[in-house]
């Protein structure tokens, strides 16, 4: 007499099996842990994360050119340029450079004719023209990521730029698989 062998012909589809599995563990929360942002890819945040600093952290030149006080350029035209002496209120800047004190705009380098010690500006600018203002991308104190957010690679970049070096995430579950049968 041979024993009847049990076969598993009614396998559940993957989606249904996942739904059953997760429904049984939905109230199980892992303990939180703090990890460096660089190691947090794919991890789930415990709570919301707020920016520690603004991005950019300073008023920055948005173009290569000459940082000026905008009011000093209001009469500038291609036919009648305004001559400004290089110094405290006029400085050459590259894209991304902080604006010097007492300046509030940047004249594009294509609209400037440089001479030793001074420059001729051939186009007027208004206040904050060609400037990336402090906090244009991220403002200090604003919520960057909500609670229970899974961290992606570009989230890591935003966190680091905003001065956050570590985050509180749920601990990874430890799973033990016990195979049964032959």
Written account of the structure:
With 182 residues, this protein is α+β, with helices and mostly antiparallel strands. The chain folds into two domains: 30-57 and 135-176, Alpha-Beta Complex (Molybdopterin biosynthesis moea protein, domain 2), CATH 3.90.105.10; 60-132, Molybdopterin biosynthesis moea protein, domain 3 (Molybdopterin biosynthesis moeA protein, domain 3, Beta Complex), CATH 2.170.190. Helices cover 11% and strands 23% of the residues. The chain has helices at 14-24, 153-161; strands spanning 32-36, 49-50, 60-61, 65-68, 82-85, 91-93, 105-108, 112-115, 118-121, 131-132, 143-145, 166-170. Strands 6-4-7 form a three-stranded antiparallel sheet, with no helix packed on it. A three-stranded antiparallel sheet has the order 5-9-8, with no helix packed on it. The protein has a two-stranded antiparallel sheet with strand order 1-12. The mean pLDDT is 91.
């Amino acid at each position: 007499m041979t024993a009847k062998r049990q076969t598993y012909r009614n396998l559940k589809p993957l989606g249904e099996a996942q739904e059953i599995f997760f429904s049984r563990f939905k109230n199980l929360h892992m303990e939180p842990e703090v990890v460096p942002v660089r190691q947090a890819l794919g991890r789930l945040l415990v709570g919301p994360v707020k920016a520690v600093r603004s991005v950019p952290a300073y008023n920055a030149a948005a173009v290569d050119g000459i940082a000026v006080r905008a009011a000093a350029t209001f009469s500038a035209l291609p036919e009648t340029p305004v001559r400004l002496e290089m110094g405290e209120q006029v400085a050459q800047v590259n894209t991304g450079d902080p604006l010097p004190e007492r300046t509030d705009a940047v004249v594009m380098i294509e609209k400037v004719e440089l001479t030793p010690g001074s420059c001729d500006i051939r186009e007027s600018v208004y206040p904050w023209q060609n400037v990336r203002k402090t906090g244009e991308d991220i403002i200090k104190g604003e919520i960057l990521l909500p609670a229970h957010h899974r961290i992606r690679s570009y989230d890591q970049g935003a966190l680091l730029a905003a001065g956050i070096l570590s985050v509180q995430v749920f601990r990874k579950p430890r799973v033990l698989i016990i195979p049964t049968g032959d």
